[in-house]
């Protein structure tokens, strides 16, 4: 085994919308309990990575949407602490893995498929030397040409339209899939949102809207199994047509330089379909929040670690494994798992975890984005808390404040709280006898970061102390 004290290249691979149990290697998949007519797909590449690396199948995301989730991953801080907790508001304020990598003299590279979300508007390009949009080969070139890197390649093709992302990567197979899905459907299909995560030409935009109309129709018809199969098929298609060749090229180029690489593969959130959830953005569903983490490279001891960890653990783990100097104690909300990855210590057990979902009214968001994309000042975009969850031991509490209806166009107020317990296979079951008071207290403590500080009363005692220091008060 090689000394793992130094990796020339630290490459993060983010697969947007990949739920943990989409991998065939997952020890206790949740989806077969829910989608009885769906079937597993081939995930050979991910299964091999999980077998050869340190595999964490029970990683809890801090948020069910791309921006806040990636902010937590890159900073090791929960969203309320790093400045980016809403769906599309705020900016990443905390230092990130790119900050620390650049300080250590590494070239920092970020390639994204969703530039509108993971771009400069929300602070993701700070401390990034090379920023690329949908340029897989350019990312590989940049890594191979650098002396050392801290780099991340984000892929959006598991996200709807499942497996294709756009015409550049999907081509005629994408056109054929949309036409196939539309066969036999009514002429008048439901309203769909017009939100986009990347810049698209007219045909690309039309294809995406057509795909969304099909998905919205299937959800309205409660064809959840078919939707989930479309999602799983998209995972397989993405792996076969894009990620497998990408990783092969990356590994070959790095190996040719004689450099060593640490590979860290993860997801930001998963996907779910039921009466409450159509995808992920508004959901605290376990299938949405539970994502995979795989770490591979020299010095990594292969093993599957089923204990619960958090996506905020990724940044401190990467810093320690890569030898990049870590920030002062207390900066990270997460904990380093480097000792577990190296086989030098056992996992501590299930970590406590938190997640929240914020959103805006859909029509407000659509109008905001249309103004933004047209070059006009987009103006404010008010957000609200949809729901949140806290994990402790074998329990979690879920509290939802909004219920979506009318094709997920409207979010009505509600206040619905329940507690779930996880069985030996990590499957959650509701516990009607548990009020979750200790778990709700965790959420209250976390949310105190949002509260405005109370003004300190200016008492006579304070006046006297200031006078003694020479102030006139």
Automatic annotation (TrEMBL):
Q: Which superkingdom, per the lineage?
A: Bacteria
Q: Which InterPro entries match?
A: Alkaline_phosphatase_core_sf, Sulfatase, Sulfatase_N
Domain named Sulfatase N-terminal is located at 9-85, 246-324
**Gene Ontology terms, MF aspect:** arylsulfatase activity
Pfam families registered for this protein in UniProt = Sulfatase (PF00884)
* Family per similarity comment: Belongs to the sulfatase family.
This protein is called: Sulfatase
């Amino acid at each position: 085994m090689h000394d793992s004290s130094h990796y020339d290249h630290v490459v993060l691979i983010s697969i947007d919308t990949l739920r943990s149990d989409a991998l065939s290697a997952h020890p206790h998949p949740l989806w077969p309990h829910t989608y009885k007519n769906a079937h597993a797909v081939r995930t050979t590449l991910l299964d091999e990575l999980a077998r050869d690396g340190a595999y964490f199948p029970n990683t809890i995301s801090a948020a069910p949407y791309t921006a806040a989730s990636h902010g937590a991953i890159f900073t090791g801080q929960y969203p309320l602490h790093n400045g980016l907790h809403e769906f599309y508001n705020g900016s990443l304020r905390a230092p990130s893995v790119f900050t620390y990598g650049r300080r250590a003299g590494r070239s920092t590279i970020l390639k994204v498929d969703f530039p509108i979300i993971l771009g400069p508007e929300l602070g993701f390009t700070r401390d990034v030397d090379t920023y690329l949009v949908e340029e897989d080969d350019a990312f590989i070139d940049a890594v191979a040409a650098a002396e050392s890197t801290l780099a991340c390649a984000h892929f959006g093709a598991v996200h709807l339209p499942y497996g294709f992302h756009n015409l550049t990567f999907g081509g005629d197979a994408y056109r054929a899939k949309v036409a196939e899905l539309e066969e036999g459907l009514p002429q008048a299909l439901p309203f769909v949102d017009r939100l986009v995560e990347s810049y698209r030409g007219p045909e690309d935009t039309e294809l995406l809207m057509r795909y969304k109309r099909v998905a919205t129709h299937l959800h309205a018809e409660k064809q959840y199994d078919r939707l989930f199969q479309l999602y799983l098929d998209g995972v397989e298609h993405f792996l076969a047509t894009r990620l497998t060749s990408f990783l092969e090229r990356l590994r070959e180029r790095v190996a040719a330089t004689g450099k060593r690489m640490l590979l860290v593969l993860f997801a930001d959130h998963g996907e779910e379909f039921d009466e409450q959830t159509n995808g992920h953005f508004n959901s605290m569903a376990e299938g949405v929040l539970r994502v995979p983490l795989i770490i591979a490279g020299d010095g990594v001891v292969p093993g599957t670690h089923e204990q619960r960890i958090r996506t905020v653990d990724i940044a401190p783990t990467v810093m320690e494994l890569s030898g990049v100097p870590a920030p002062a104690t207390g900066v990270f909300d997460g904990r380093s798992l480097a000792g577990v990855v190296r086989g030098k210590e056992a996992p501590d057990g299930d970590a406590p975890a938190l997640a929240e979902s914020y959103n805006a009214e859909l029509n407000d968001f659509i109008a905001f984005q249309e103004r933004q994309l047209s070059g006009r000042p987009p103006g404010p975009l008010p957000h609200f808390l949809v729901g949140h969850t806290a994990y402790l031991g074998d329990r979690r509490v879920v509290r939802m404040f909004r219920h979506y209806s009318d094709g997920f166009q409207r979010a009505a107020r509600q206040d619905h709280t329940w507690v779930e317990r996880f069985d030996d296979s990590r499957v959650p079951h509701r516990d009607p006898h548990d009020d979750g008071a200790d778990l709700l207290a965790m959420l209250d403590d976390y949310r105190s970061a949002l509260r405005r500080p109370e003004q300190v009363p200016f008492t006579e005692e304070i006046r006297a102390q200031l006078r003694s220091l020479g102030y006139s008060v």
